[in-house]
Write a structure and sequence with these properties.
The structure is a homodimer. Chain A contains 3 helices and 12 strands; from the N terminus they run αβββββαβαββββββ. In chain A, a hairpin with a 2-residue loop joins strand 7 and strand 8.
């Protein structure tokens, strides 16, 4: 892949608005919680109820998702934007699960005030290039009404404003 | 799955901000173009450069993606919002590719003024429940600078506003 092609593709991908999620998991033996910030998360189907996440195999949480066989998708609200830095900086790793903002959700760390928090059991995984795609069947859902979803676009945090055609 | 669980999951998925894409393809023998509106589109990895789309097997474009072995992800701009209705309503099917807004991109229909248009060759597919997940290697990219990405959230169209932490 030449450098121009790579730069174009990165630019195209940055233009895709997406949710900001923290994917969490917990080691079944040590009970150690792990988490990472992800934007590559999609619903797959309602039958069976399922979500797909794309995880870089070099990320520290990857092996724990495999061992635990489960993950929780926590969709961040705008008010939770400081968690993006907390879960992106390796230096802050020890503080990630220190606060009283987590609760158990199907034996996984669920973020209490997330816009939505969706616990999944891994049913299928596919390796492709540098990433593993995990398809999880949904085992638990928590919703918080009246929270505003946080988004990514162009490499930065964003909020969403309803668009009225004609306006 | 009980009705409450299903309703909760649908509500959670509606809270995920996402890009609005028109996925296009072209039958290799009849040259018939096909397309559908999709929100379940993610980048997979840069090595190889790849995208994943989730397509309901009951959609009319599904069989053509399989036959053609390729698809093009056209990320809509805010100005292109009328295309959502055009590609969602079966009654408007004949008008979808009538306008002079399409051009060839790696033998696939590319939307000329899309925020980005990414042609992909299918490298892998996975059936899960009602959907097929297609992983495509990127073969061509077109970008239009100074276009504003269109988004979905809560079942409606939306635009994205940069969020400054602290504001």
């Amino acid at each position: 892949m030449d450098a121009d092609f790579s730069a174009h593709l990165k630019a195209a991908m940055r233009r895709m608005p997406s949710a900001v999620s923290i994917i969490t998991t917990r080691h079944p033996e040590t009970a150690q919680p792990m988490g990472l910030v992800a934007s590559a998360v999609i619903p797959v189907t309602m039958d069976p109820p399922s979500m797909l996440v794309s995880i870089n195999r070099s990320s520290s949480a990857h092996a724990t998702i495999v061992t635990a066989g489960g993950f929780c998708v926590n969709l961040l609200s705008v008010a939770q934007h400081p968690l993006v830095k907390l879960f992106s900086s390796g230096a802050l790793r020890d503080r990630r699960f220190a606060d009283d903002i987590w609760e158990e959700r199907c034996d996984l760390p669920g973020l209490r005030d997330a816009t939505a928090s969706i616990a999944c059991k891994v049913r299928h995984s596919i390796s492709f290039g540098t990433h593993d795609l995990f398809i999880g069947e949904v085992t638990g859902i928590m919703l918080n009404d009246d929270t505003e979803p946080l988004a990514w676009v162009e490499g930065g945090l964003a909020r969403i404003v309803a668009f009225e055609p004609g306006s």
